[in-house]
Amino acid sequence: MKTLITITLLFLSIIAKSGTIDDGWYKSSVSYSNYSTGTYAKYTLNVRVEYDRVIAIDFGNDGSVHSGYNDEDYTYSGGYLTLYDYYGSSYAEASVTVYTSDGSTLIFKITIE
Length: 113
Description:
By secondary structure, this protein is mainly beta. It has one helix spanning 2-14; strands at residues 24-34, 39-50, 53-58, 64-66, 75-78, 82-86, 89-99, 105-112.
């Protein structure tokens, strides 16, 4: 019972009182799809959250995609988090779409638990 209470309190410390998620880096489950190449994969990656929006996805190999200006000629859109409470389990989800200069569309479905 103590373990369950500790885990619950730890998770609740991540969710701010206003029903938002705190700014910072989070380990998350990321489903990736590229319809142009038919590539679909699932990864555990770190994502950066600011103001309830995923603004960066770190691939762990010195690669990333992020909102704002970039030298790689891609456009980043989305990333707005939706918070859920499902039978006592809270999590957040977002979808990010990246449009590349070669016409590819990359979609990242992100879950932060």
